[in-house]
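Structure ticket #2291
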Amino acid sequence: MTATNEAQVIDQVKLPPRPFIRTVWSLHKAAYRLTGGRFGLQQPDRGAKFGMLRLHTVGRRSGKGRIAMIGYYEHGKALVTLAMNGWGDTDPAWWLNLKANPTATVDMATGTRTVIAREATGTERERLWATFRDYPGWGDDLGALAGRRPGQTAIVVLEPIESVGPTSATRDQLERAVRAVTPAVAEKPGRRLRRRHLWLVPGLAIAIYANAVGNAYGVSILELIAFGIAPDVPRLFGRRGRPIHNLLHQPIGPIIAVAITLSGIVPTFWLVGSLVWLGHVIAGQGVGDVPHGAGERPNA
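Resolution: structure written out below.
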């Protein structure tokens, strides 16, 4: 294939809008939390689908635990994945974190393990790259998708920590790395109720009441859904949208909005929206959907 033809093929490959991709990622993580780990992880099946795991890293700047859901396949005892970031231009934050601290913990459908990350190069990279095609789900044309990115897409190998020899890291270095990543490990998959989950009760109750009010005044289900997801829209814009996202997830905002609409100054339509917003914020306390810390980049 000539360079011109290759460029034409790359241009023909279309990707979903970036906000849509970010929304899918957020929903995936939320589904895992809400189901106690029963949904969101899967074993790879050669010829049918890639696997899904939950990766725990340490933020390279914050030093705090970060979580990402990524696809993978198994190569011997190692787990292989692509640092593709939804085929976006930049490397994913989890890969940048791993380059700073290669020790990580992964939750899989079969259990949890501690791993050491490295990038595949040379002939190993060529072999692993060809194997991605055996696990559908990465994209119909890996070459064209990778060609859209400004740099080479890293193939990341996650090796069990016990299989890493002394030439890769000393015992003391490994022990320090394990201690560093341990706080990043969230609860293991399973149904475990916590005190914060009680916030779901008033949050859902307010949402149900808002639906009843909306039905009485002709507010459709689509409008209710729009009100419900609106507070999370700013997070689709990454770091730039974080201040607005944080502001919309403070309880004082929807409480003031409800008070204003109850006074009759604005139409009842906006009362429904304010109630849905309040229910979203309160229920978010139960599922851990809280504002990001000031000055801290998510996943970094």
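Closing remark: The chain has two domains: 3-184, 195-287.
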